[in-house]
Amino acid sequence: MKEVYFTTHVRKRLNERHVTPKEIITVLKKSKWTLVKENRMRAQFTFPFSDFYKSRFFRWKKIRVIFIEEKARIVIVTVYTFFYNQEAL
C-alpha cells in the first residue's frame, strides 16, 4: 500500500470524529474504492463498536474516508463517522 498522508483538516478532527489513523488505514485496505467526484475516491467500512458516543450507546461505527490517490501516496481529505445500532446499515 502507498504512503498515507493525513491533511491538517483530518488530523485536527480525528478525536472529534472518534476515528484513529489505524482505523482509516483498515478502511482503505478492507473496502472497495469508489470514484465520487473528479479525482476524489471514497472507501467505507463498518466496525463493531459497542460503546458510548455522545452519551448514547451504539453497536456499530461506519467510517467513510474521502481521499485522493496520487502516484506516490494516498491523501486523506476528510473522514466521516456514522454510529448505528443495526448491523445492516
Topology:
Elements: E1 3-6, H1 8-13, H2 21-30, E2 34-37, E3 40-53, E4 56-69, E5 73-84
Parallel strand pairs: 1-5
Antiparallel strand pairs: 2-3, 3-4, 4-5
Structure report:
Strands 1-5-4-3-2 form a 5-stranded mixed sheet. Strand 4 and strand 5 form a beta hairpin. The protein is built from 2 helices and 5 strands; from the N terminus they run βααββββ. The protein has a single domain, classed as 2-Layer Sandwich (YaeB-like fold). With 89 residues, the chain is an alpha+beta fold. It starts with a strand and ends in a 5-residue tail after the last strand. Helix content is 18%, strand content 54%.
Give a nutshell description of this structure.
It is built from 2 helices and 5 strands; from the N terminus they run βααββββ. It is α+β, with helices and mostly antiparallel strands and 89 residues long. The protein has one domain (3-84): YaeB-like fold, CATH 3.30.2310.
Keywords:
89 residues, alpha+beta, YaeB-like fold, globular
Shape: globular
Order of helices and strands: EHHEEEE
Strand order of the largest sheet: 1-5-4-3-2
For the terminal residues, how far apart are their CA atoms?
28 Å
Rg, rounded, reads 13 Å
Main sheet characteristics? 5 strands, mixed
Q: Quote the beta fraction.
A: over 45%
Q: How many structural domains does the protein architecture include? A: 1
Low-confidence stretches: none
Examine the coordinates and then state which fold CATH places here, giving the name of the CATH topology. YaeB-like fold
Average pLDDT, all residues: 95
What's the architecture in CATH terms?
A: 2-Layer Sandwich
Number of DSSP strand runs: 5
Helix content: 10-25%
> Pairing-aware structural class of the strands and helices?
alpha+beta
Count of DSSP-assigned helices: 2
Q: Name the CATH class.
A: Alpha Beta
